[in-house]
Design brief:
- By secondary structure, the chain is α+β, with helices and mostly antiparallel strands.
- It folds into three domains: about 5-90, Acyl-CoA dehydrogenase/oxidase, N-terminal domain (Butyryl-Coa Dehydrogenase, subunit A, domain 1); about 125-235, Beta Barrel (Butyryl-CoA Dehydrogenase, subunit A, domain 2); about 245-400, Butyryl-CoA Dehydrogenase, subunit A, domain 3, CATH 1.20.140.10.
- About 45% of the residues lie in helices and about 15% in strands.
- The strands form two sheets. The protein has a four-stranded mixed sheet with strand order 1-4-5-8.
- A hairpin with a 5-residue loop joins β6 (about 200-205) and β7 (about 210-225).
- It is globular and about 75 Å long.
- The two termini are about 30 Å apart.
- The model has no long low-confidence stretch (mean pLDDT about 90).
Length: about 400
């Protein structure tokens, strides 16, 4: 495994840094610092998407023929890392990272020609219709039903935890089209406009006080058969392919950025004994443990990148290990940040966050998002495949269970 960057990759890194220095303006930086959700608010992330789209860098992993960059695996890793280090807005993954690759693999020529350019430009803003009230990690048990009626499917049922459904104009969804046989064998993958008659959205306000997720209801919603991706009852094959993209995250740079904030907070705030928290032995020990865990995540990512660059694959074990340790370490770092700001963690500051907020913050600016991020990150070990699911995968692969 060669972890050193080649001269061409170092030059590319410098190009990315120069672009970010020029294009990620102070105004964008200030707005992004006040974001606490998994993805930035729609208005902010679309501003950043337009900038990347104009530069031709909005879809690093897409092939050139579909509007992608043609970058190598290492270049994509460098770009993701530099963006995370700079703190750029987190673009929703549902269109660019999930639905786009699925369309390239399973879509018809007409579907590719219609959807892919609009995903790139941001004209289409997507949400994911997978989880249901009784079907989360056990996705094959989903019950939202689609019945064929001539040239349409008629959908009845509900989806839950649907991120940014209130902003989206398109959804990709898994629906049940057959009940007989294995559960996985009766699922179909559909795409549908969010303004479809019979579709309604109920907001879910999270523990962090954010409207980030929703429940979506389908009351005899008609979707043309032409909006099916892949074959009827073969949606599980499409879903498994998409989940490869949902669960593949670059965590290390994000964790390191969060660790830098913790160090800044620890230097600025006092411990119970009155000395700076950065000088408290117990806090320093736990911070060092978090840094060691971040190093482990970093080396795991680099090992995966090295394997991919050599023509290998990520592998289920490495992907599950990275998801498991990346999210757990991120949670640990947000816990340290919460401890560091002490009593400033108590006020509810949601009204002072986000675009257009005009409520003054309580306490120093560096403390304003800490509580919301801590609360939001509690879900990181659930979404995208819970930690329990990842441990089961690792147990089956390592122990042959």
């Amino acid at each position: 495994m060669d972890l050193a960057l080649a001269p061409a990759d170092l030059a590319f890194r410098d190009e990315v840094r120069a672009f970010l220095s020029r294009s990620f303006t102070p105004q964008l930086r200030a707005a992004t610092r006040r974001q606490s959700g998994v993805f930035a608010e729609k208005e902010l992330n679309q501003r950043w998407q337009r900038i990347l789209f104009e530069r031709g860098w909005v879809a690093p992993s897409w092939p050139v023929e579909y509007g992608g960059t043609g970058w190598s695996v290492v270049q994509r890793y460098i770009f993701d890392t530099e963006c995370a280090e700079a703190g750029t807005p987190a673009l929703p993954a549902m269109g660019l990272q999930m639905c786009g690759p699925v369309l390239m693999r399973f879509g018809t020529p007409e579907q590719k020609a219609f959807f892919l350019p609009r995903i790139l430009s941001g004209e289409h803003y997507w949400c994911q219709g997978y989880s249901e009230p009784g079907s989360g990690s056990d996705l094959a048990s989903l019950q939202c039903r689609a019945v064929r009626d001539g040239d349409d499917y008629v959908i009845t049922g509900t989806k839950i935890w649907t991120t940014h459904a209130q902003f989206a104009n398109w959804m990709f969804a898994l629906v049940r089209t057959r009940s007989e046989g294995k559960p996985q064998a009766g699922i179909t993958f559909l795409v549908l406009p969010m303004e479809s008659p019979g579709l309604s959205i109920r907001p879910i306000i999270t523990l962090a006080g954010e409207h980030e997720v929703n429940q979506v209801f389908f009351d005899s919603v008609r979707v043309p058969v032409a909006n099916r991706i892949g074959e009827e009852n073969d949606g599980w094959t499409v879903a498994k392919y998409l989940l490869e993209f949902e669960r593949g995250h670059a965590f290390a740079a994000r964790i390191r950025a969060a660790l830098r904030q913790v160090k800044m907070l620890a230097a600025a705030e006092a411990s119970g004994s009155g000395v700076p928290l950065a000088e408290d032995d117990d806090f320093r020990r736990r911070l060092a443990e978090a840094e060691i865990a971040a190093d482990a995540v970093d080396f795991t990512e680099r090992r995966i990148i090295s394997q991919l660059a050599a023509g290998g694959s990520t592998g289920d074990a490495a992907a599950s290990m990275l998801k498991l340790k990346g999210t757990e370490t991120l949670q640990t770092v947000t816990e340290l940040a919460l401890e560091a700001i002490a009593y400033y963690a108590a006020p509810d500051q949601r009204q002072a966050l986000g675009l257009g907020a005009n409520v003054p913050e309580i306490g120093p600016e560096h403390a304003i998002t800490v509580s919301a991020r801590y609360l939001n990150t509690r879900a990181a070990t659930i979404y995208g495949g819970s930690s329990e699911v990842q441990r089961n995968i690792l147990a089956r692969l390592a122990l042959g269970l």
